[in-house]
Amino acid sequence: MDHSQHHDHHTASPPTSSDHGNGGGHGGGHEGHMGMAMTFNLDYMGVELLFSGLVINSAGEMVAACLGVFLLAILYEGLKIGREFLLRRSQVNVRYNSMPLPGSDGTVLMETHKTVGQRMLSPSHFLQTLLHIVQVVVSYFLMLIFMTYNGYLCIAVAAGAGMGYFLFSWRKAVVVDITEHCH
Fold first, then answer.
1. Using CA atoms, how far apart are residues 146 and 141, in angstroms rounded to an integer?
2. Kind of pairing, strands 94-102 and 108-116?
3. Phi and psi of 148, rounded to 5°?
4. 102 Cβ neighbours under 8 A, 6+ residues apart
5. Distance between CA atoms of 52 and 34, rounded to whole angstroms?
6. Which of 5, 11, 70, 115 holds its CA 20 to 30 A away from the CA of 105?
7. What is the 3-state secondary structure (H, E, C) of 74-130?
8. What is d(CA 139, CA 141) in angstroms, rounded to the nearest whole number?
9. pLDDT digits (tens, 9 = 90+) for 50-105
């Protein structure tokens, strides 16, 4: 009886996950992060921008992407200030209501009350809602762009936000009521 053939049969065991040397069959522990770099970098080749088909593969494409991101950040700041402006303009529609009040000496005094009216089903509220949706989408796009950790794109987001604030916020007036004690 030849035991060498029988012995070879028993030593050839099926490979187990520990035989692969990859940390238990989980791709070396890298699949959990899906290959996403979690540190800032200055790459300009193979950088995905928001969508899997939108990949930056050259320095020129990175310049164009940074310009587009810069303009998107300016648009975001413009949307914020524009919505505030539209809201203030729609609330300027102030109504004054007069109400007769009896005076202490029997005369009738007219007291005027100021009311600011805005209806939920008004065109200005629909416009505000639409602009709010656009603002939220743009803000999430900018956040996701920043989360690429690409230094060039992060600088473009920050510079665009700064430029947008510079261009649009100077018109923003803050009115402080000095009689208001709850600041």
1. 9
2. antiparallel
3. -75, -15
4. 108, 109
5. 13
6. 115
7. HHHHHHHHHHHHHHHHHHCCEEEEEEEEECCCCCEEEEEEEEECCCCCCHHHHHHHH
8. 5
9. 999 999 999 999 999 999 999 999 999 999 998 888 888 776 555 555 666 666 77
